[in-house]
Amino acid sequence: MTDDATTADAIRGTAQGTAPVPLSVLDLVTVGAGTTATDALRNSVALAKGAERRGYLRHWIAEHHSMPGIASSSPAVILAHLAAHTVRIRLGSGGVMLPNHAPLVIAEQFGTLEALAPGRVDLGLGRAPGTDGATAAALRRSDRLNEGADDFPQQLVELTRFLDDEFPDGHPYSRIHSVPGPVQGPSHRPPIWLLGSSGFSAQLAGMLGLPFAFAHHFSAQNTIPALDLYRSSFRPSEVLSEPYALIGVAALAAEEEAEARRQVMTGALSMVRLRTGRPGLVPTPEEAEAYTFSEVEREFVESWVGNVVYGTPDAVRDGLNDLQKRTGADELMITANAHTASVRIKSYDLIADAYGLPGGSQD
Questions:
Q1: What is the tens place of the pLDDT at every residue in 77-129?
Q2: SS3 state of residue 120
């Protein structure tokens, strides 16, 4: 079992500098045009080390499949690599899509991560496939995709019991032990977070007294309703005595606002291609500038960019503070949408500078 005080401290963290709440990193392990997955994974290490140096609380990896521009199909593998290159920063999944996997496999993977990096692993869980329907069917070996999502609460119970080694006597799995895990001795298993972009996971997280992470970066219109539902549904648990809500937010800072928008447009074009069934590597700024958007695409881009906090470091800080006040979020997890790793890493440095976080910029 976990130590309740330790678990709550791991969830809540502490804001640093002038940040009103802790700041964290959501890493999509972006593969830009002209680069490789090897480059992207190397850049992920550089980002995690920089985030640790600058006082960011967490570095999470998201599970995506069949997307050439995102090299994070195996979060647990990447997190193990990051654990070997960091010391303090919390590492986690943002998230593992539970219906894609057997709960015992996830318990074993994250038990292993906890053994590699004791006390600094988070297990964030989602119920979406993280990909298209055909790929989800290949992952799940079933065409009944809604079945996995509908069974999410039961899968969550099963996963929790494997993590805690607490199946009741007589249960078919009572003699199965997730290893590494409690059967080997005292274990502080990773805190479980529920992730979502609508109300289902928000309500479930509240009812179970778990921390909740909402995907504001691609479902901004649902943010406040989902957080309201989470808080109204919340029941105190051994994990948390009161709600704790994190929101993922797309943000990018540059020395000049025009340059920030120029970089953000690479992510915008990437999203246009993804939404129209043409996923690929993240385009360069030059490619985004040369692209002729249709009227429908331009409307989508303006809507998408409207939910990105971008500009000068001070403008991004003020935008993040405003978003935090409007939503009441207890933590902001920033994802930077841009083609070039150095641009993304510099953005996190500039945001840290604007908030007075420790470490200092490193050009």
A1: 999 999 999 999 999 999 899 999 999 999 999 999 999 999 999 999 999 87
A2: coil
DSSP 8-class letter at 303:
H
- Give residue 52's pLDDT: 98
Place of tokens 């539970």: 98
Say which residues have a Cβ less than 8 Å from residue 102's Cβ, sequence separation at least 6: none
Nearby residues of 38 by Cβ (< 8 Å), 6 or more positions away: none
Residue 35, CB half-sphere, CA atoms under 13 Å: how many? 22
Angle at 92 between CA 90 and CA 144, to 5 degrees: 170
Closest listed residue to residue 249, CA positions, set 223, 229, 285: 223
* pTM of structure: 0.94
H or E, element range at 59:
strand 58-61
| Phi, psi for 8 (deg, rounded to 5) | -60, -40
Rounded Cα distance, 234 and 300, in Å:
35
Residues 236 and 209 sit within 8 Å (Cβ to Cβ):
yes
Eight-class DSSP state of 6:
H
Token pair of 9 as six digits: 């401290």
CB within 8 Å of 323: residues ≥ 6 apart: 216, 247, 249, 309, 329, 332
Distances (CA, A) of 23 to 120, 173, 239, 241: 16, 39, 21, 22
331 phi/psi in degrees, rounded to 5: -160, 145
155: region left, alpha or beta (phi > 0 left; psi from -120 to 50 alpha): alpha
Task: Provide the phi-psi class of 7: left if phi over 0, else alpha when psi is between -120 and 50, else beta.
Answer: alpha
Burial of 46 (0-12, 13-18, 19+ CB in 10 A): middle
From residue 345, alpha-carbon distances to 151, 210, 334, 352 in Å are: 38, 31, 12, 11
